[in-house]
Amino acid sequence: MLQWFQRLMPRQAKFYPLFERHAAVVVAAARSLRAMLMGGEQIKLRCQDVIDLEHQADGIAREVLIGLRTTFITPFDRADIQSLITAMDDSIDQMQQTAKAIMLFEVTTFDEEMRAMADSIVECAELVQRAVSMLPELAKNAAEINEIGLHINRIEGHADDMHDRGLAHLYQKAKSCDPMEFIRGNEIYNHLENTVDRLEDVANEIQGIVIEQV
Fold first, then answer.
1. What residues contact 97, with CB distance under 8 A and at least 6 apart?
2. CB 15 within 8 A of CB 67
3. Could you state, in order of their start, the residue ranges of all structural domains in the chain?
């Protein structure tokens, strides 16, 4: 009976291509978010790009979860597959929240530190994409994947420094002008920091898979 059931089930869904598609969408969203922080007339357009890309990412994540339910053999542990795609989806969800906060608070000019954090988001997203592309040959790429994870950890630390420095500058400016400027800026800084943190979570998930599988 079990053998008959196994024959009916797909032996392996295309998890790796789905991860790579999702990672590419995350990179595109990160670049659109960074474009928003350049200011100007493109803010609204790039915000819509982030929203549309987040919807695409949700669809890919659903494909992965459906694959988990309908596939008998998976390339690595099911729980790890679910945790990885969830972490990846959380990162682009946070990008969307950041973009929406910018629109909600009608922020049109951005501090140097905010733009530096946006650069960090793009760099982390691109590194995640690179690590994801190496998953099919995990044993061969284990050392490089771990190095990517460490690189993302360092970027996250730099982004934290930019967050703290930016808030300090913002506070000094707000003392002599509209206090709402600090409230708006603080919200954007926190969203940017959370986005970097979510991308670091993805790197941690990938490193965890390496530890378990290699």
1. 191, 194
2. yes
3. 11-213
In CATH, what number does 11-213 get? 1.20.58.220
Could you report the per-residue pLDDT of 52-111, keeping only the tens digit for each? 999 999 999 999 999 999 888 899 999 999 999 999 999 999 999 999 999 999 999 999
CB proximity list for 184: less than 8 A, separation 6 or greater:
105, 107
DSSP state of 92: H
User: In the 8-state DSSP scheme, what is residue 68?
Assistant: H
For residue 182, give every residue at least 6 positions away whose Cβ sits within 8 Å of its Cβ, in sequence order, or none: 170, 171, 173, 174
Q: Which of 135, 37, 134, 173 is nearest to 95 (CA)?
A: 37
pTM above 0.85, yes or no: yes
For 83, phi and psi rounded to 5 degrees?
-65, -40
Q: Decide if 149 contacts 207 (C-beta within 8 A).
A: yes
pLDDT at 11 over 90: no
Nearest Cα to Cα of residue 50 among 63, 40, 37, 62: 37
Per-residue confidence band for 213, with pLDDT thresholds at 50, 70 and 90: confident
Q: Where are the beta strands (DSSP E) in the chain?
A: none
Structure-derived torsion over alpha carbons of residues 182, 187, 189, 195, reported in degrees to the nearest 10: 180
CA–CA distance, 83 with 114 (Å, rounded to integer): 29
Average the pLDDT over 117-136 and give the result: 98
